[in-house]
Amino acid sequence: MATRRTSFGKDTGLQARMVLTLFLLGLLYVVFVGVLFAAGAGAGIIIAVALVLLLLQLFGSDKIALATMGVKEVSPAEEPELHAIVERLCVQADLPKPKVCVMESSMPNAFAMGRSRKSTTVCATRGILDLLSPAELEGVMAHEITHVINRDVMVMTLAGFFASLAALILQFSFFFGGGGDREEEEDLFLVVIASVVVYAVSFLLMRALSRYREFAADRGGAVLTGRPSALASALIKISGTIERVPSKDLRSAETLSAFFIIPARTKKSLMNIFADHPPLEQRLAALERLESQLQGAA
User: Fold this and answer.
1) Which of 33, 107, 178, 221 is the 20 to 30 A CA-CA neighbour of 289?
2) Could you tell me the CA-to-CA distances from 31 to 177, 191, 198 in Å, in that order?
3) Which of the residues 136, 138, 144, 214 is marked catalytic?
4) Residue 158: phi, psi to the nearest 5?
5) What pTM did the predictor assign?
C-alpha cells in the first residue's frame, strides 16, 4: 500500500515541469554568462560569486529562513498530536521522518523546506494547530509531505539561485559601474539588460512552477489521506482566517510565502501570472473532482 501511494503521490506532470524549468533556466544562465564574458566581466569573479551563491542557496537558505522566522523544533512530548500525524503519514508514504517544527505565530499556515528527503523540515504555525481539527491538520501535513515526495522544494531552491545571481550582478553593475568611456558604458548597459531579462524570466518560470506544485501537493496529500474534503475544509479555514491577520504579521512572513500552503500576502496579485499559488477556488474545485473520483472507485 505504501509503495502504491507514494508512486501515486508523484505527479509526472510536475516532474516534467521541474525538469523543463531547470533546463530553461540553465540555458538562460549559459547565455547570461556569455553576455558577461562578452562585456568584459572578470571570469574568476563570475565563477566565484556563482559558486558561493549556489552553495548558500543549497545548504543554507532553508536554515537562514527558519532562523529568521523563529521556527523551533519540537519533541513528541511537546507536540504529540503533530508528531503522530507526521509519523503516520511518513510510514504510509515510505519516507524518513523529517524534523517537526512549530512557528509561534497566530497566522494559520504550514510549510516544508529542505534540499533532500533526509534533510527536510515540516512546520506548522501555532495558529494552524489551534484552528484545525485533527483530520484537517492531517490533510495539511499530507500536503507538505507530498512536497517532500516530489522533491519540488529542492527544485524551487535551485531555481531561486538564478534569479538571485542576476539580481546580485545587477546591483553590482549599478554600484560599481559608470564613470568609464563610451565602450565601458555600452558594456555596462548590456550587462544591466541581460540581468533584468534573466531575473524576469526566472521570476515567471518560478511562479508558474510554484502554482503547479501546489496543485500536485493538494492531489498527492488528498490521495495519501483518502480525504480530499478534509484538506478542502482546511484550506477554506486557513484562507478565511489569514484575511483577518494583521498586515504587520503577514509582512513578517512574506519571505516564505511561496512555501506556505496558503500565501501570506497583505494584498492580492493584480495578475494571476505573478501569483505563487493558484486561486483557492481552483484548488477547491480540483479537490472536489478528486473526492468524486475516489468515491466512485470505492
Assistant:
1) 107
2) 21, 12, 9
3) 144
4) -65, -40
5) 0.81
